[in-house]
Structures are given as C-alpha cells and as structure tokens.
Amino acid sequence: MVELILGHLKFYTANMYLDISGKLDDDINSINDILQIAKTSGILITMDSNSRSRMWFDKLTNARGKKLEEFLISKQLFVVNEKNEMKTFQSS
C-alpha cells in the first residue's frame, strides 16, 4: 500500500492479487484491513481477483465473484472497469 499526497488531497493505493487457490475470506479480511488504514482518506485498489462477475463485464458470475460483489457493495466501493472485447487473460 502506498500513501499519496497531492496538495491537500491524501489517498492510498493498493495493488492486490487474489490467488485462486487461496481463501477468499482471508483476502476480504486483508481488504478490510486496508480500508481501515485508509478510512479517513481516499483509496484506489487495483486487483486481479481471480473471480468472475458481470459487475466487471465478465460473461458470467461464479461463487467467488458473487461473494466479492457482495463485499464491495457492503463497503460502498465502486468497480471502475470498462467494457472491452480485448481480454487481459486468455487461455488455450
């Protein structure tokens, strides 16, 4: 996590990778910890969540995606993603 100060504006950035083999609950707890540190400032979290959700323009929502969606909504966080036909990952 990085703290940035631009004039009177202070916010944090965090880049996260949620391992597909890890427990999503542990990752959500980590996100909660980040939110507590940044609670009086802005926060920008970039993430590879290894989850699928229509909320970020996937074709389907899986169980991990649904759980992450519910967490984001409960914390009033916004997904900033663009609908795009270009994939960031493509397997064989």
Specify the number of helices.
2
Tell me the Rg in angstroms: 14 Å
Mean pLDDT: 91
Number of strands: 3
* Share of residues in strands: 15-25%
Taken in chain order, the helices and strands follow as EEHEH
Cα-to-Cα separation, first versus last residue: 34 Å
Based on CA inertia axes, which overall geometry fits? globular
The order of strands across the largest sheet is 1-2-3
Structural domain tally:
1
Low-confidence stretches: none
Largest sheet: 3 strands, mixed
List the helices and strands and how they pair.
Blueprint: E1 2-6, E2 9-17, H1 24-37, E3 42-48, H2 63-74
Parallel strand pairs: 2-3
Antiparallel strand pairs: 1-2
Structural write-up:
With 92 residues, the chain is α+β, with helices and mostly antiparallel strands. The protein has one domain (2-74). The chain is built from 2 helices and 3 strands. The protein has helices spanning 24-37, 63-74, and strands at residues 2-6, 9-17, 42-48.
